[in-house]
Amino acid sequence: MRSRPRRVSGYSLRSRSSDRKPKIGRLILCLLVLSAIIYIGLRAYVSGSGRVLLVDRITVVGNRYLSTGEIISASGVRLGIEMKEVDPDRIGSTLLSRFSFLKSVEVDKRMSGEVIIRVQERKPAALLSSGGRYHLIDEEGVVLEEDVSPSRFEGLKVIDVLEDEGELVRISLSVLRFIRLIYPAMFDRVVSIGADSPVRLRVLMEDGTELILSVTNLEEGLENGFLVYSIRKNAGLEGGYIDARDEKLVYCGGI
Length: 255
Prior knowledge:
The chain is α/β, with parallel strands linked by helices and 255 residues long. The protein is built from six helices and twelve strands.
């Protein structure tokens, strides 16, 4: 008695092909991993030493005011030195102590032989007038460059306070930021900000008018003072002072 041939369901040449695809994918992955291992191994066999990875590229990222050359030079990193000699912590502390323009430094060592120095620079915010000289400072009052010419930084406002009064410098910078944020039209007309004390801030306008403010009533004082300044400006009046430290009254004089 003959038996009938049985059909094997779900079996075809296509299924064999699909079974091969995962194997091919794993093979490709293994080859890629092996290639990466071989590449890293070859990088270690530089100059026939068999043990040394050398620096063959130095990149600086994030610098605008400082040149790439002076950062690399001060870092002490050189092409051709052993990667193990590159100390990120030492490089960071060296650059921060060398350049007041730098706020933070990160150093990345790569197996490709590249050293990346990432810096964050402080941004000039104003000119600090002290003893007849001008110093470039950032928004925190940090001196970035001493004894500069104001003509190099015509767009920056001047902070004029008593010498070595760091707190008054910070207060003046805060007032300057506040004016720029709330009253940009007024900010464009500001020449300098002086501070005798936190309750006597002097904002010198481009026409010679001096606006007197206090940190205890800054927002309302600016609103009232700027309103009076605009009225006087439209009336053709210039110079003198506008004392807007009082909550309800504004005093004018010296016109």
